[in-house]
UniProtKB/TrEMBL annotation:
Name of the featured protein: Outer membrane protein assembly factor BamE
PANTHER family (alphabetical): OUTER MEMBRANE PROTEIN ASSEMBLY FACTOR BAME
Protein's organism: Sphingomonas kaistensis
TM annotation in the entry: none
Superkingdom, taxonomy of origin: Bacteria
Lineage: Bacteria, Pseudomonadati, Pseudomonadota, Alphaproteobacteria, Sphingomonadales
């Protein structure tokens, strides 16, 4: 009887511990409807009609307000790993000065850039100081009048 109880408890403990290792998928950003996205036509639509059809964009151009971006991304994750992008769709709509659609472009997952940081510290130019030089180096250099180096107002 005890071996059956032990086996049951071991199976229960294993299933509970492995339950946290399941993978999951997630949709992020704009949910792309292909029929609505393909309905946007160059020369026919303007900013108001695009907003009625697709809604507000995910973001606008940083240097040009006449570029709207709709970004959709699907990711998958296993356990506690970093999410991996499985699908990405970026719809860029460009407008002319009058607010009419001048171009519609699509890109996908190929535009994702992976940036690796350089080590654990940022390289700097100049002299390297020790901890004590950094800590005690500013004593007497902040100012000469009063506490804290502030000059009294007259």
């Amino acid at each position: 009887m005890t071996s059956k109880r032990f086996l049951l408890l071991a199976t229960l403990a294993a299933s509970v511990s492995l339950g946290g290792c399941t993978g999951y998928r997630e949709n992020r950003g704009f949910i792309m409807n292909e029929e609505l996205a393909s309905a946007v036509q160059v020369g026919t639509d303007n900013k108001a009609s695009v907003e009625r059809t697709l809604g507000r964009p995910t973001f606008t151009g940083q240097f040009n307000d006449n570029e709207w971006y709709y970004v959709s991304r699907k990711t998958s994750t296993f356990a506690f790993r970093t999410p991996r992008v499985t699908e990405q769709s970026v719809l860029r709509i460009r407008f002319d000065a009058a607010g009419n659609v001048a171009g519609v472009d699509r890109t996908g997952k190929e535009q994702i850039a992976s940036i690796d940081p350089y080590g654990r510290s940022t390289p700097t130019l100049g002299r390297k100081k020790s901890f004590f030089e950094e800590f005690f180096g500013n004593i007497g250099t902040v100012g000469s009048g009063g506490l804290g180096g502030a000059q009294p107002q007259q």
